[in-house]
Amino acid sequence: MPSPAVSVIMSVYNGARFLDLAIDSVLAQDFTEFEFIVLDDGSSDASPAIIRERAARDARIVPILRENRGLIVSLNEMIEKARAPIIARMDADDICQPTRFSEQVAFLEAHPDYGVVGTWSEDIGEHGEKLHRTGPDHPVTHEELLSFIPINGPLICHPAAMYRREVVRSVGSYHAAFRHCEDLDLWLRLAGVTKLGNIPRRLLRYRRYGEQVSSRHATEQQYGAAVAHLAWRERAAGRPDPTQTLESLPPVEALDELFAREGVSREVRSQVAHKLLYSRHALGDGGFALILEHVRDGGDHAGLWRTVVRLLRYRHPVRATKLAAALCAHRPVHAGAAA
User: Which of 82, 163, 194, 299 is most buried, judged by most C-beta within 10 A?
Assistant: First the structure.
C-alpha cells in the first residue's frame, strides 16, 4: 500500500494469550486502507512467532521485532515509523468492533478541529465474558472532556483512540516520565492545543484481568496521574510545566521542590493514598509505604481502618499491625476526618 489512510500501532509484550484475537479484530475492519504496525517489545513467549506468521499472511501487517525498551519508547517509535496522517491505537488484549475505524475516520473528516477521537468501550473479562460496567462513560464533546479534567474523570480510552499524527508529534508525543499513565499525560497536554472527544458507541471490547498493567502497577500509575494533573494545572495557570523534560518522576517528597511551593507533596500523597486502598497489588508493594506516610503526616483516616482488615485478608499481618499502630498514634490534622 503506497500511502495508507491510517496507521494502526500496537505494542506487544508477552501478549501471546490474546494476540490472535486482537489482530483478527483489526484485520476484520470494514475500513481497509490501513497499515498495521505490530511491535514486539522483547517478548519471551510466543508473541514474536505469532507476529511473524500473521505478517506472512497479510501484507498490511508491518512487524518490528526487537529487544525490550518499554511501552513509551515503543509507541513513539511506531509514531515515527507510521506513514499515515492518522494513527489508531490498539492493545494486544482488546478487541475492535468491525466498524471502529470507519466511524472514527468519518468523525475526524467531519470535525477538522478535533485532533483525537476515542470511543466508548465494553468491559470484558479474562475469558471474553461481559462485565458489569461501573463509573461514567467517557465524555463525548471537547467541552465535556474539559469539565472532566478537574474532577479526575475518564478522558479517552487509550486502545480506542485515533489521533492526527502531526498534532501528537507537535507536543512531543508520549513523555518518558509518565510510565503506566502516558496516555493521560498526553491527553492533558493535547487538550491545550486541539479538541478531543469520543464517539458514544461501544466500538472496543476492553479486557480487564488481574495481570494487566493497570492492576500490576497501580501505585506508579496513580502517582503519575496525580502529577500529570498537577502539571496540567500549572499550564492552565500560565506557569511553566516542570515535568516537561523529565525522564522519570521524582519521589513524592521531592514534589514541593519540583513545583516550587509547599504542600504539593502532601496533597499528592493524600490523593494517591486513598486511590490505593482497594488495590491488592499496591497494598503489597510500595503503595503501602505511601499510605503509611500519609497517616504519619496527619492525613485523614477515611477508609483506613477497613484497609487494616483488608491487609489481614491479603495475608499481610505485619503491614496490618503497622497501619493500625500508625492510625492510633497519629491523629488527622483536620478536625472531623472520618475514621
Answer: 163
* CA 200 – CA 120 distance, rounded (Å): 5
- Distance, in Å, from the CA atom of 6 to the CA atom of 148, rounded to the nearest integer, reads 29
> Can you read off the three cell numbers belonging to residue 299?
492525613
Task: Report if pTM > 0.90.
Answer: yes
Considering the domain delimited by 6-214, tell me its CATH architecture.
Answer: Alpha-Beta Complex (3.90)
C-alpha cell at 84: 499515515
What is the rounded CA–CA span in Å between residue 250 and residue 261? Answer: 15
Closest to 86 (Cα-Cα) out of 110, 71, 102, 108: 108
Task: Please spell the DSSP secondary structure of 284-304, one letter per residue.
Answer: HTTHHHHHHHHHHTT---TTH
pLDDT digit string, tens, across residues 161-181: 999 999 999 999 999 999 999
Q: Where are the domains of the chain?
A: 6-214, 263-339
CA distance 336 to 227: 27
Quick check: 99 pLDDT over 90? Answer: yes
Burial class (CB in 10 A: 0-12, 13-18, 19+), 110: exposed
CA 264 and chain centroid, separation:
23
Instruction: Calculate the CA 126 to chain-centre distance.
Output: 19
Residue 118 contacts residue 162 (beta carbons within 8 Å): yes
Per DSSP, 13 falls in state: S
Q: How does 312-330 read in b/e, with b if 16+ C-beta sit within 10 Å?
A: eeeebeebbebbbebbeeb
State the Cα–Cα distance between residues 140 and 155, nearest whole angstrom.
9
Separation CA 268–CA 275 (nearest Å) = 11
CB 114 within 8 A of CB 194: yes
